[in-house]
């Protein structure tokens, strides 16, 4: 492309990075929040705040399943699907769910949950309708409002660009080790470049891993061709081959009595003594085609495929079981997905995931800010900014400051929208996108340092508002969470306060930077020439 | 004499402007073509190459497919970077088209599609 490899890579890093940086920021941002998906969902459902994990969690599972079968048989004998979701460390409540009758022409009727406190065995009042952490989880690869397939293709290509930008970033980085330890604060673009380098290099293995494995999770959509070449029926053939429990029989309208669940459970516990079960799904209960799928937790193993047993729902015989031992290639493939989702992570590792994700956001954010700053610097005094530069600056402000504000709006909406509102969950999401849109319109209008400062203050206020409104509208607050040892909720509120603090620091920093710029006009010139030599 | 030189200089400036515009656009076209080669060319090459890999790797069928699928992204990103590293655009297109066609031919022969 350019005269030499180094320059070509610099060019590519800049342009490929710029092309997708805002979308990547959204993906990284929402993905980072998704590491705490269950915790966010919990925060969004105050009705479940007081449910606590029992000490005999695993020992209780058998009786919980049997009681669940009784409940579902009495309440929803005609439903096409039942699910029994057992309490886990991160989700302490027990849930007996069934699919509601399917509306004409639809393939899915939605789940009706029935939550139970495992400690008191009492029914919990139906929590408010919310997508909770699942909203961010879906957002990071389905992008909302878009057709799912289109969105995933867009996300795939953005991730590919990210991977390419990461690799070229390493190539153009001559002093990778030295820069790991150098951050020169308050030096204008030099600081931005240092910030970009530090956040990239320190968490580089994470960035590479999360991008590559992220693409792997969508790989059968992106590259179905190897499977299509090797198998007659393509990807489905591969899955049936690799996952023996994946077989799906046709639904039959004939009714047949459901097998005795205790017999099935005896079978389960002889196969897996001391198993930590996670969910039981029953397809076509009380029909001739009934099946019962039993899944166990993968625990802290580096494995994504859950151990699964598939039973015939009429005679209780075992149809298929997942392979106990994976082949080397299966381990290689499977562990990549497991690394991406981080379900294996214990709390400490989960925080590390989260911090690395934040580093990724900082890397992307500093990258796009630096781009706009450099173009501004190269411009002559009387030159007006081109449309492209203005667009980049507007998108920077709208994305970087808009997303956190929209997130706060989502949480505030969760507490303020009346509980019985129709389509409540969608209204929370609407609050998210409307806030973001408002920031974007604001950014189109003006985007100088003053706007950055105003939005930083607004974000700080919004973060504090989340904590305060939570304290006012629910029976808990950050202090009571600390006293009762509700660590997930406590950390949530604490993080809001920490981010509020960071936004205040940001708002305070911006004017000082203006002062420094005017003071150090002379010294910045020399820094600028140095930068140009480098690039 | 004087008038002619003015006219001359005018035509010169127009042609230089035209060539300038052409150059500006040819640069854009070149960049567009390069992105096309990287995204579409890279995608097609990877698709054909990994499909071939999935039936030639000396492993169990499911393992061969899973391994080739796991390698797709690595191959794709390598091709992508290569496209931006090589100076001659023509060489890039010829290399991509020839290798992809060659691999596709080999794949068709092995699968008996021809």
TrEMBL record, chain B:
Q: Which UniProt keywords apply?
A: Membrane, Transmembrane, Transmembrane helix
Q: Any transmembrane segments, and where? A: 35-57, 64-84, 90-110
How is this protein named in the record? Iron transporter
Q: Which organism is it from?
A: Pseudoalteromonas haloplanktis (Alteromonas haloplanktis)
């Amino acid at each position: 492309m350019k005269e030499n490899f180094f320059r070509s890579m610099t060019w590519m890093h800049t342009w490929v990075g710029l092309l997708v940086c805002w979308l990547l920021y959204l993906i990284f941002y929402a993905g980072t929040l998704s590491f705490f998906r269950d915790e966010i969902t919990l925060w969004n459902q105050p009705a479940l705040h007081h449910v606590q994990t029992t000490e005999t969690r695993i020992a209780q599972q058998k009786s919980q399943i049997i009681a669940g079968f009784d409940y579902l048989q009495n309440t929803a004998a005609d439903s096409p699907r039942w699910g029994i979701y057992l309490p886990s460390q991160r989700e302490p409540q027990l849930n007996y769910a069934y699919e509601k009758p399917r509306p004409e022409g639809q393939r899915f009727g939605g789940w009706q949950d029935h939550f139970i406190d495992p400690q008191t065995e009492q029914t919990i009042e139906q929590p408010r309708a919310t997508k909770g952490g699942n909203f961010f989880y879906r957002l990071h690869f389905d992008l909302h409002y878009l057709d799912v397939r289109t969105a995933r293709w867009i996300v795939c290509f953005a991730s590919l660009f990210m991977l390419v930008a990461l690799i070229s970033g390493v190539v153009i980085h001559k002093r990778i080790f030295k820069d790991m330890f150098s951050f020169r604060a308050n030096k204008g673009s030099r600081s931005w470049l240092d910030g970009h380098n530090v956040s990239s290099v320190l968490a580089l293995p994470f960035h590479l891993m999360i991008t590559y494995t992220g693409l792997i999770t969508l790989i059968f959509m992106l590259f179905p061709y190897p499977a299509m070449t090797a198998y007659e029926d393509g990807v489905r053939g591969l899955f049936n081959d690799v996952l023996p429990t994946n077989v799906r029989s046709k639904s039959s309208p004939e009714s047949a009595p459901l097998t005795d669940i205790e017999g099935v459970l005896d079978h389960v516990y002889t196969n897996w003594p001391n198993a930590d079960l996670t969910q039981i799904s029953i397809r076509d209960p009380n029909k001739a085609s009934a099946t019962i799928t039993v899944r166990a937790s993968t625990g802290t193993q580096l494995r994504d495929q859950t151990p699964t047993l598939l039973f015939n729902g009429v005679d209780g015989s075992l149809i298929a079981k997942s392979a106990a031992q994976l082949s080397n290639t299966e381990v290689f493939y499977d562990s990549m997905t497991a690394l991406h989702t981080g379900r294996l992570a214990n709390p400490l590792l989960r925080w590390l995931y989260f911090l690395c994700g934040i580093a990724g956001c900082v890397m992307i954010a500093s990258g796009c800010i630096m781009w706009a700053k450099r173009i501004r610097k190269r411009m002559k005094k009387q030159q007006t900014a081109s449309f492209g530069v203005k667009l980049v600056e507007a998108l920077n402000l709208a994305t970087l400051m808009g997303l956190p504000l929209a997130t706060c709006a989502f949480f505030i909406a969760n507490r303020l929208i009346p509980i019985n509102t129709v389509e409540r969950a969608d209204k929370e999401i609407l609050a998210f996108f409307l806030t973001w849109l408002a920031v974007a319109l604001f950014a189109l209008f003006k985007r100088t340092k003053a706007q950055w400062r105003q939005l930083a203050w607004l974000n700080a206020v919004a973060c504090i508002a989340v904590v305060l409104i939570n304290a006012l509208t629910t029976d808990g607050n950050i202090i009571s969470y600390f006293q009762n040892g509700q660590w997930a909720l406590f950390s949530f509120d604490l993080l809001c306060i920490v981010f509020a603090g960071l936004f205040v620091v940001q708002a305070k920093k911006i004017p000082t930077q203006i002062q420094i710029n005017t003071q150090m006009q002379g010294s910045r010139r020399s820094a600028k020439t140095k930068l140009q030599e480098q690039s | 004499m004087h008038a002619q030189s003015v006219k001359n200089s005018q035509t010169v400036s127009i042609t230089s402007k035209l060539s300038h515009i052409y150059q500006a656009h040819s640069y854009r076209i070149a960049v567009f073509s390069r992105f096309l080669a990287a995204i579409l060319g890279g995608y097609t090459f990877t698709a054909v190459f990994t499909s071939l890999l999935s039936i030639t790797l000396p492993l169990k069928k499911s393992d061969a497919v899973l391994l080739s699928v796991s390698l797709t992204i690595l191959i794709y990103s390598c091709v992508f970077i290569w496209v931006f590293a090589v100076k001659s655009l023509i060489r890039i297109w010829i290399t991509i088209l020839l290798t992809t066609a060659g691999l596709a031919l080999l794949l068709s022969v092995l699968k008996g599609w021809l």
